[in-house]
Amino acid sequence: MPININKELPAYSKLIEENIFVITEDRAARQDIRPMNILILNLMPQKIVAETQLLRLLSNTPLQLNIEFLRVLRDTKHTSKDHLESFYRTFEEIRTRKFDGLIVTGAPVENLRFEDVSYWSELCRIFDWAEHHVYSTLYICWGAMAALYHFYGVPKHRTTRKVSGVYRHHLENPGYSLTRGFDDYFHAIHSRHAEVRREDIENNPRASDQLVLLSYSPEGGLYLLQNNNGRKVFVTGHAEYEIGTLGQEYLRDQDRSLNPDIPYNYFPENDTEKMPQMNWRAHGTLLFVNWINYHVYQETPYRLEDIH
């Protein structure tokens, strides 16, 4: 089944060109099914890029998904006002509604204290609102670090160098539905200047009692966690990244004279002239499909108003 998005969204034509199954709102309204209502809080500066990447992964579920986008009020510098007004809601516009699922993206603010992020108080309101208005929430990269800090007091730590590359991960608790069908080892992308450390979770009684570590990389660190009932999922990497995203970030950081390391295990033979080969898409697709199926569709009440 397809994702249901506004036909005017820039991602629509790109996904159609890639043979991704999407439908318009008019066609969705004629289908006699109960679609899943998914809200995406997009904190990334290049919002159109992030929209397309996330929608591409969500399109592979067999369910119909109604997608809406949410923004915070102080995050408007990099995207046109017309785009935000056309395709995004504010928290005040949706705070009385309920959703089957919520995705919170990352944001390039890892070097700031959480409390110093301009929209931190609004983000905390959204986190707390989601506890009783959303059945399951998927937090990505900085969004995952922020939620782990807000809910469990787990700190983030700045890394000496940017964690950037394609890292080999292994399963630590393979019996959970979120990782059903995963290989014992798989690749996933990280791109961040901070980390959440395993020992901070294991030595924090509140976190260790409520969180399950599902996947880890010796080089990339923690990758995938969930709380005990699966209503909070934390992904510290970027399963949604396209094949050229890390390379573009590397060139951008070079242009800014940040002296970046070549992304780990990304360019063949570390030769930046060679085209990377994608080896993380199958995992990323399965991760999103499993979240939608097992944590949202199989568990959420049929009546959205029954979510609590």
Automatic annotation (TrEMBL):
The active site is at C141 (acyl-thioester intermediate), H238 (proton acceptor), E240. Substrate binds at K162, S191, R252. It is found in: Cytoplasm. It catalyses: L-homoserine + acetyl-CoA = O-acetyl-L-homoserine + CoA. It is an enzyme of class 2 (transferase). Pathway: Amino-acid biosynthesis; L-methionine biosynthesis via de novo pathway; O-acetyl-L-homoserine from L-homoserine: step 1/1. Its EC number is 2.3.1.31. GO terms for molecular function: homoserine O-succinyltransferase activity. The record marks E110 as: Important for acyl-CoA specificity. Keywords: Acyltransferase, Amino-acid biosynthesis, Cytoplasm, Methionine biosynthesis, Transferase. Pfam families: HTS (PF04204). Its main location: cytoplasm. The record marks S191 as: Important for substrate specificity. Transfers an acetyl group from acetyl-CoA to L-homoserine, forming acetyl-L-homoserine. Belongs to the MetA family. This is Homoserine O-acetyltransferase. It comes from Candidatus Haliotispira prima. The gene is metA.
